[in-house]
Amino acid sequence: MLSPEQASDRARDLVERARRAGADAADAVYGSNASEGIQIRLGKLEDVERSESEHIALRVFLGHRSASIGSSDLSPAALDELAARAVDMARAAPEDRYAGLAPKELLARGPFPELDLIETYEPSPQTLRAMAEEAEDAARAIAGVTNSDGASASAGSGVFALSTSHGFTGGYASTHHSISVSVVGGEGAGKQRDNAWRTAHHSGDLPPAAEIGKLAGERTVARLGSMRMKSGPMPVVFDPRVAGTLLGHLIGAMSGSSIARRSSFLLDKLEEQIFAPGIEVVERPHNPRGLRSRPFDGEGLPTVARNLVEDGRITGWLLESASARQLGLQPTGHAARNGGGAPSVSVGNVHLAAGALSPAELMADIKEGVYVTELIGQGVNGVTGDYSRGASGFRIVNGELAGPISEFTVAGNLLSMFAKLTPASDLEWYRAINVPTVRVDGMTVAGD
């Protein structure tokens, strides 16, 4: 695998080849990944996987015409052909007056922040297997667990580099380590399944494998004897495992492309009170060891800390250059590159600021409600904000969890849900989107 410096040189070289082939402007993105994983089931080895990939993508501009192309062949002859083909494709492309590189005056300048995304330790296959076995053994040791879907442990590394024809070149590397386990509890028609997993840039940031396995087993057994839920309007409490998806819908609706296409439920809501006063959604792209930490975005612009929501109000849209031009605004450093093609939008590490009440206090006055630990399906309309998803979890009766439930639906509209959202105090910091337990009043639960 290339170093970030070598990867940056490769991307810069491809841009120069594109300029020699006739491109007015160009950018190139290099990405490589290597990973090794071990999967076991019922104590026996099921799979050993080692993967390595390397890819470079080129985007060229001829005036307002553009084209993108990529290759995993990085030989000089292949890169020359890649550049020539991209320019030929651009000549045949339709004009797009919003297409182009990011404004030169906004490009990131070093030195970049130290993000501590790299660990030199590389576990052996034997170590990975021992971790997976430890996780599964701990899960299966929980009374009531009757079978296993397997456990896995993996480790890997990656490199990203970007170069543009108007003055930006940069790259960075990261490593990752993960453990996951899924087990089954009960017998016959009463079987239930659940899981636990963790991932981090540094192996030392993972909990012990046995702790992850024990959590998977306990979650599974807690679902045994699951019943159906009656229908009606009631408060819904979202476990941190699933509460982050609510912010995911918010972020998608804040993307510049959705606003420019007028296909977002947040359209024309920029100055309005979306959440309750005091609610903050915070982006911190430079958190050391953060899962979404990055020094610059996919167009070479600096990433900066900001509040996406402040005192319950959205502070602005998430813009890459094309949508920013369409809206007459400046790009915000949220461009993402996944291989070739035009940039999309992504955020850094995001969290919903914790509230003052513990989860128990948050539920204390709920006479009848549901506590959701799993969401199923994709029933969210990004244009209208209508929300309807299958779920499972637990009943809340008189402020206490009162037994597992499944096969019900929670529904509402995201604007109404955000307005009635109350966060608890149990914020944790190991996900890309970190959200405490949240309560949303006035949702519709459809069960029996």
TrEMBL record:
Alphabetically, which GO biological process terms does the record hold?
proteolysis
Q: Which Pfam families match?
A: PmbA_TldD_1st, PmbA_TldD_2nd, PmbA_TldD_3rd
Enumerate the spans annotated as Metalloprotease TldD/E N-terminal domain.
26-90
Alphabetical list of InterPro entries matching this protein: Metalloprtase-TldD/E_C, Metalloprtase-TldD/E_cen_dom, Metalloprtase-TldD/E_N, PmbA, TldD/PmbA_N, TldD/PmbA_sf
Q: Which residues form the Metalloprotease TldD/E C-terminal domain?
A: 231-447
This protein's superkingdom?
Bacteria
For the Metalloprotease TldD/E central domain, which residue ranges apply?
A: 122-224
Query: Which GO cellular component terms are attached?
Result: cytosol
Extract the SUPFAM superfamilies matched here: Putative modulator of DNA gyrase, PmbA/TldD
Can you name one GO molecular function term for this protein?
A: metallopeptidase activity
Question: Which family, according to UniProt?
Answer: Belongs to the peptidase U62 family.
UniProt protein name: Modulator protein
Originating organism: Novosphingobium malaysiense
